[in-house]
């Protein structure tokens, strides 16, 4: 799946969670991506963020950042 498509999908998820309030948006987006996105999709959106994250809304960007595996 193209990075542009993943960005579009992630931003749509962000639009939904923004309607529930700013305090719930980032955790809600991150949880949705963890539960419903294939691991390859999550890896690809994190790689897109690493490459600059063009097109990602700020709250979606923060949620994708939360998907990173913990540093060892």
TrEMBL record:
GO molecular function, a single term: oxidoreductase activity
UniProt EC number: 1.2.1.2
Keywords: Oxidoreductase
Entry superkingdom: Bacteria
UniProt entry tagged with the keyword Oxidoreductase: yes
Enzyme class at the top of the EC tree: oxidoreductase
InterPro entries recorded: Formate_DH_dsu
Pfam family, one: FdsD
Name of the protein: Formate dehydrogenase delta subunit
Species of provenance: Rhodopseudomonas palustris (strain HaA2)
């Amino acid at each position: 799946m193209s990075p542009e498509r993943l960005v579009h999908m992630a931003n749509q998820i962000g639009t939904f969670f923004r309607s529930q309030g700013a305090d719930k948006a980032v955790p809600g987006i991150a949880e949705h991506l963890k539960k419903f996105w294939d691991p390859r999709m999550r890896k690809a959106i994190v790689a897109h963020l690493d490459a600059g994250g063009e097109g990602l809304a700020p709250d979606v960007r923060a949620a994708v950042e939360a998907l990173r595996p913990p540093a060892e």
